[in-house]
Amino acid sequence: MTEMVFGTAQVRAGDPILPRWWRTVDKWSLACVLGLFAMGILLGLAASVPLAEKNNLPRFYYVERQAMYGGLSLFVLLIFSMMSPRQVRRFGVMGFAVALLMLFVLPVLGTDHGKGAVRWLSIAGFSLQPSEFLKPGFVALCAWFMAASQEVGGPPGRLYSFITAGMIVLLLAMQPDFGQASLVLFAWLVMYFVAGAPMVLLMGVAGMAVLGGFFAYGASEHFARRINGFLSPEIDPRTQIGYATNAIQEGGFFGVGVGEGTVKWSLPDAHTDFIIAVAAEEYGLIMVLAIIALYCTIVVRSLFRLLKERDPFTRIAGAGLACSFGVQALINMGVAVRLLPAKGMTLPFISYGGSSIIASAVTLGALLALTRTRPQGEIAEILRRKR
Q1: Residue range of the domain that includes 335
Q2: Of the residues 55, 88, 178, 226, which has the maximum number of CB atoms within 10 A of its CB?
Q3: SS3 call for 348
Q4: pTM given for the model
């Protein structure tokens, strides 16, 4: 009866791992991830060549590195998507501890790569951004806290999650990295809502975030400069936002043609933060809508599949991962069209960057693991387990 209602796939004892994974994984979401990766390689061929020539490197140097990172990320995604919810929780908590330790050493060993914010650790010639790997671990830890608080005699997990979120937001704001800080806070609000928090409390936390924004505006020149640029009625055509806005307008519906775009020669971050501008200029609105459709499909399908879940951790963690993934893409594209202030946030699976694409693979791999169809069990059995 459970399978008839919830559409779950029965797992047979001794079933090989790969056939069981293929039968239970969300194939549509997996196909969308592969589509995003393919678009990232395609846009990398257009956006990264000027930067390679500027740095006296082979023309396809960054594309080859993106393909290498992509192959590694697909392997990571496959491994994580085969995990059980309990394994996702364990690896998430351990990953959070490691990423948190790296955040603490950033002020001493970190670098800003000329971006004005210390966000990267340079290790053996590779740059690592700890905040990218912190997010999925943070979601797993807070979901564990919130799920534990729903058990009879459980700990005050919601309070623990609030303290954890406050600590992470403060650490990220000190870099300063207000984009990642806002994303972490948003993920926590989504999970708290799914866990049954009252709307009054959520509105209070949102109000505190707004007050924090006013404080950051007065205390951080880096933050104030970006807000002032966003609020200014005039767009300086020599800024990255100016170049991106002009490229999107020039692209129109069908684009100017493959390889015919000019914004990639002007934007220093054309292959990372503003890659959607390259897509809009060369391939037009059609490519942008296709990219948006892929992100929406992943998020919406994941949320619908999570509606069938009875396990609190799976439901809370899955919602946090899906929404944070979708909102990161929304923020990146919103910045490019000047709907949001500049955040320095990558477009998952499309922007160039090892930390970004591998961290996105961890996030989507964990999400695919949590949304796999599985027997849900009877309500009486779950209530008995809680006692």
Answers
A1: 26-371
A2: 88
A3: coil
A4: 0.87
Among the listed residues 66, 106, 84, 69, the one whose alpha carbon sits nearest the alpha carbon of residue 17: 84
Residue 175 CB partners (closer than 8 Å, separation 6+): 106, 117, 118, 119, 131
Tokens linked to 27: 């194939």
Round to whole Å and give the CA distance between 345 and 385.
42
For residue 7, being part of any structural domain is answered with: no
Q: How many domains does the chain have?
A: 1
Residue 227 lies in a domain: yes
Cis amide leading into 176 (omega within 30): yes
The answer as to whether 6 is a domain residue is no
- Distance, CA of 277 to CA of 263 (rounded, Å): 8
Residue with tokens 């590779």: 126
Q: Give CA torsion, residues 52, 58, 64, 66, to 10 deg.
A: -10
| Structural domain includes residue 360 | yes
Helices marked H in the chain — which ranges? 2-6, 17-24, 27-47, 49-54, 61-81, 85-109, 130-149, 157-173, 178-194, 199-219, 221-231, 240-251, 275-306, 312-336, 354-370, 379-386
Q: For tokens 């800080």, what's the residue?
A: 181
pLDDT digits (tens, 9 = 90+) for 145-203: 999 988 878 888 889 999 999 999 988 888 778 888 889 999 999 999 998 877 777 78
